[in-house]
Design a protein that fits this description.
This protein is of the alpha+beta class. The chain is built from seven helices and eleven strands. The strands form two sheets. Strands 1, 3, 4, 5, 6, 7, 8, 9 and 11 form a nine-stranded antiparallel sheet that branches. Helix 2 packs across helix 3, helix 2 crosses helix 7 and helix 5 runs antiparallel to helix 6. The relative contact order is 0.13.
């Protein structure tokens, strides 16, 4: 499988009852010892966790811009870990939830250390408490994450609109690679195919921008004529567009329609 399990055993071997102020369990603060951490693609980008069922990604920057800052959030911790651009390590409590998540922005290259406060507060003499975790260490692929446990699928952090397009892109590249046996040529073919597919949209956008550009002198005249009456100026400009069959959104709308595809490709 794509995961392994780790169990922590707390046993009171003394005669007296004992209580704990804090027990914090953390995953590793790096994602695999053999990765080149000087490469920005491999550096851990932040802490990820699910608190009370809500997914959060504490990325570097903003509140965590400086090193040594610690953030604590109380609640039911369903899972937690750290993530890079492509890989993640996630700890999933089995049969229990944590009571708090702690994120520490470490000084230096490697990003974040993340921990979860355990719900073990006291142990009577001779008693024990065993807490088990399912550990996922792998790529941020929604399908693989769901196979390990459906509750961690949000760690892929991929928009529901982007995800099916992403899957189509991967499927296309894999099958094109079968034709050539070379991913470089598969990428060249893929680029040509996508260029052809989006050619009508690109052409429409270019034509619309050219029409808009040709109307610039007349638009400037209207702006000068009605500079003290913005509402009238707006009506006259829209009238000018209508007379010349120009859609003001015609230049950017075709590009916006392509954006989900390019996000998925990235």
């Amino acid at each position: 499988g794509d995961y392994f399990t780790v169990s922590y055993r707390f046993k009171n071997l003394g005669r007296n009852n004992i209580s704990f102020n804090n027990i914090i369990i953390s995953p590793s603060d790096i994602i695999g010892p053999r990765l080149d951490f000087d490469n920005s693609y491999n550096k851990p980008k932040g802490s990820i966790y699910s608190l009370n069922g809500d997914y959060t990604n504490e990325t570097k920057g903003g509140f965590f811009k400086k090193g040594g800052i610690v953030k604590e959030k109380a609640g039911n911790v369903n899972w937690y870990g750290i993530a890079g651009r492509y890989f993640t390590v996630i700890m999933i409590p089995q049969g229990f939830s944590g009571t708090k998540v702690i994120c520490d922005n470490r000084q230096g290259t490697y990003g974040f250390r993340t921990g979860m406060q355990m719900p073990v507060t006291s142990l009577s003499s001779g008693s024990e408490s065993i807490k088990q975790f399912k550990i996922y260490l792998g790529d941020l692929d929604k399908t693989r994450l769901k196979t390990v446990d459906p509750i961690i699928k949000d760690a892929a952090d991929t928009n529901v609109l982007i995800w099916p397009i992403r899957q189509f892109v991967i499927w296309s590249l894999i099958n094109m690679n079968k034709l050539f046996g070379n991913m470089g040529w598969a990428l060249v073919l893929f680029a040509l195919v996508t260029k052809i597919i989006f050619l009508p949209l690109t052409t429409k956008s270019t034509e619309s921008m050219k029409k808009m550009s040709s109307l610039t002198p007349e638009m400037n005249k209207l702006k000068e004529k009605h500079k003290d009456k913005p509402d009238v100026m707006q009506k006259e400009i829209m009238k000018l567009y209508k007379e010349h069959g120009v859609n003001p959104m015609g230049g950017c709308l075709p590009l916006l329609l392509q954006m989900p595809f390019f996000f998925a490709l990235y």
